[in-house]
Amino acid sequence: MDLIPEGADPLALLRQQPAELHRDLARLTEAQALMRYAPGKWTPKEMLLHIIDTERIFTYRALRFARGDAQSLPGFDENDFAANCEANDRPLSSLLTEYHAVRAATLALFGSLNAAQLDRAGLANGAPTSVRALVFITAGHERHHLAILRERYWPVLPPAEANSAQHLAAALR
Known about the structure:
7 helices, two-stranded antiparallel sheet, Four Helix Bundle (Hemerythrin (Met), subunit A), mainly alpha
């Protein structure tokens, strides 16, 4: 939640983020979407599917808690998910389409919750978490990965692309 400015509306951020993410990723070629900024790091495609998978998990947790489910929900290993996601075998356009569908579902769920539902909480990965916190966490998670994309991936693109990406990143700030 540290990545969300104080006083910001997390639902407004969740509505704005798809255009920003799409602008950043849709400009990549398929080859660029397979690059890694360092050995062992995710490709942009893997990062995008990680954002998708994690958003699904966060919204599942929010749904369970909002509906009063008191069962403790397990965590997940993001690296195991990434190792088994096969994102690099899919076209980037397919991943972006899936991302937009998941975000639309996220906005529909979060937008439907009333104050009492947002205040409900449960245990996720052993930690108490409110539905309201999950709304903030979902928005902050994507902001975190967009920052990594801009700070670590853009500099390793070929020079002409790097200049374009730096200009784009500056324009989006």
